[in-house]
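REQUEST ID: PR-0412
SUBMITTED BY: lab tech R.K.
PRIORITY: routine
TASK: structure prediction, single protein chain
INPUT:
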Amino acid sequence: MFEQLRNVEVALLLRPGVHRARETVCLRKARTSPVGRLARAMRRQARAQSTLRRHPVGDLALDPNDHPAPRDDDHIAVGRRAACSRWPDLADPPADDSRVRYLKRQPDRPAELLVTNFHQSCEWRVALVRQMMGRDLFAEAAKAYPGQDRFDVLAPYALALSTEHSLDRFDAIIVDEGQNFGEEYWLPLEMMLQSELQSMLYVFYDPNQSIYKRVDSFPNLGDPFLLLTNCRNAREIHAAAYVYFRRDETDPPALIGIPLKSSSGDTPEEQCQRLHERIAQLVSVDRVQPKDSAVLIAGTPKARYYSMLRAMTLPCSAKWAVEDHEAEGAILVDTISRFKGLERAVVVFGALDTLNPNGDRELLYVGISRAKSRLTLGGTEATCHSLM
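STATUS: complete
OUTPUT:
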């Protein structure tokens, strides 16, 4: 799957590490943001240092407290991941995202491909700078912007600061789930590119999956290329999901699947019992492999539903795997937001009474569209009927 990426340095950033709903301003205002001001200051500093190197004046020296931008002679292997020649090879950051772990396990993944998510990348590069230079970039970010949010402001600012040192730079950066990226995330990514003119930044996004309500704008990358074919869902699931779809129409898939089913109950306890019965039938009668199934819980608090399902025994030695994507022979139980971007052949989507078709349109779209071939909806009878 990675054959075309050989000999090209690519950073593949998946969704941000932790998600929270937060309204942000339009990306066009990012140039006046903390990261935007930092980027302009760093470019001015780099130009000044370049001028001084070309035209030395007496004993004039730069402020020793300044952190110079990377110089060309600090880098090796131009066109590949640019690493400082005096530092050891840099290992990939740890993976706590299921899709990151999946891509890391692929046998044909080239060594040049770094797979991470945005906030893992921030933490990783900050740790490298602390280890190699003794510089605490998060402390500097907190000092520059006291009281600001670590997730949305300090982490992107610290990532931008890390580009002052000769860490990895990339020929291309591919961003998935771009609709989840906040306005402060984009400039540090652009600053991690090898060349402003020749390096590539690709952003894949679906505004219908903007469940975290971040900005719906991106760097100026030119006209988007629209992907208008549904390659995941059977036609029945496509029809149910696209009730909540907005913008450009997507062609329905050719694959004819199984009609949607419901598993209704008047109380959360009854609903969990019906969900358990449905899963038991799928495993024991329909012979669905546990690894191909998932139960997505829309209700809150999620711990209540998790606890009720854990107390119910599954047939055929199957087990529940609550928020554990690596468990063998287990039925995954998770939330919509944690499962976004993933898929299973069979999905049981439960506790739907807590969702509002108008205010929670994105959550309904995401949850329904996770199923490839079979989908069961769980809630009260009225809720299931309205969604089907």
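NOTES: The mean pLDDT is 78.
REVIEWED BY: pending
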